[in-house]
Design a protein that fits this description.
By secondary structure, this protein is an alpha/beta fold. The protein is built from twelve helices and twelve strands. The strands form two sheets. A six-stranded parallel beta sheet has the order 3-2-1-4-5-6, with helices on both faces. A six-stranded mixed beta sheet has the order 7-8-9-10-12-11. α2 runs parallel beside α5, α5 packs across α6 and α6 packs antiparallel against α7. It is globular. GO terms for molecular function: 3'(2'),5'-bisphosphate nucleotidase activity.
């Protein structure tokens, strides 16, 4: 953040506000961790604050302090709309385009109050009054820590806030293994542990609460994996029938796409998941090295994200989507080396 942005935020927070904090649709650990940490921080400063999520999120994220106060726009629509109408300041976290909040987009676009964006994805749109945008950062949670530091207030970070922020950093860095993890990321994580985040307990709560259905679904996903050695690529498909057969719950496929990258020589991985309710195939892409899945997703699947982690969707059938994906790889053969 530059000096002017910091001063603008300080001025906004110097007065009583009715603040909304909003993450993207299908919020992940970074989205929930960052919004709850900021919620705690603002409430501890005496502000009225509310987190509204566009839709539900995985059970393994619902242990964080403050989770019970989050409003779900799908389930609590009337109350959520009332909060949007009454808001005097809106923070948007872990996304940079209002199209990422699904059905919340229209009421947010109608709002005339200041917006503050905190996000680490590429190519931000310009809807926010204050934009703290940095694609080089590991996570939005690391940025929220920086945001509090810019305000000169890191002494206000409580154990509850530290746990939320640590969760988002841990999940968005793949437990600190992705290339976006820097020395500063580790320094921030260390500060959060010193402020009360219990790293081993957080890891247990996020990663060690599997159901038998999820592990059996993982087995199906790995059995479905297709390896294209000529393009150093691996992809997984999961049909709606396969999800239903293993009593799929939201979040059960989290991390499945990364298994392709554990294969020696593979630098590009994808997963295609059928969602019959929405009539789409949901897609996640991962890569290592210089191959930009952000560019690939934007060019072909109406998505985007980061250089090494991105998402998209397809209106084709599951089989047609996989075939189309394979047909594109020849055009990228020089980059997939």
């Amino acid at each position: 953040m530059n000096f002017d942005d910091i001063q603008a935020v300080k001025k906004l927070l110097s007065e009583p506000q009715k603040i909304l904090i909003v993450p993207h649709k299908n919020p992940d650990g970074d989205a929930i961790g960052s919004t709850l940490a900021l919620w705690h921080y603002l409430r501890n400063r005496g502000q009225e604050a509310t987190v509204i999520v566009p839709n539900d999120y995985p059970k393994f994220l619902k242990w964080m302090s403050g989770n019970e106060y989050i409003l779900n726009f799908e389930r609590e629509n009337t109350q959520a709309k009332s909060k949007i109408d009454a808001a005097t300041l809106i923070f948007t976290l872990d996304f940079n385009h209002l199209g990422r909040v699904a059905q919340m987009e229209e009421p947010l676009r109608k709002s005339t109050v200041p917006f503050v964006m905190i996000d680490h994805h590429q190519e931000p749109s310009d809807y926010a009054t204050v934009m703290y945008s940095d694609p080089s950062m590991s996570s939005t949670c690391e940025m929220v820590y920086n945001f509090i530091e810019y305000l000169g207030d890191t002494q206000a970070i409580t154990p509850e806030m530290a746990s939320c922020l640590y969760t988002g950093i841990m999940t968005d860095t793949g437990s600190f293994k992705y290339a976006s993890t820097t020395a500063q990321t580790h320094r921030v994580a260390a500060q959060l542990i010193e402020k009360g985040a219990e790293s081993s307990e957080i890891h247990h709560r996020v990663f060690d609460t599997n159901t038998p259905g999820r592990l059996h679904l993982l087995g199906t996903a790995l059995n479905n994996m297709v390896i294209l050695e000529d393009y150093k690529t691996a992809y997984i498909t999961l049909s709606q029938e396969e999800l239903d057969a293993h009593t799929y719950q939201k979040g059960d496929t989290e991390g499945f796409v990364n298994y392709g990258l554990t294969l020696e020589g593979i630098i590009f991985a994808a997963i295609f998941i059928e969602n019959r309710d929405e009539g789409i195939i949901k897609i996640s892409f991962r890569s290592v090295g210089d191959f930009s899945v952000n560019e690939f997703a934007r060019n072909h699947f109406g998505g985007g994200g980061h250089n090494n982690a991105a998402g998209g969707k397809s209106d084709r059938s599951l089989q047609e989507t996989a075939a189309y994906f394979k047909s594109l790889l020849a055009d990228y053969s020089e980059k997939l080396i």
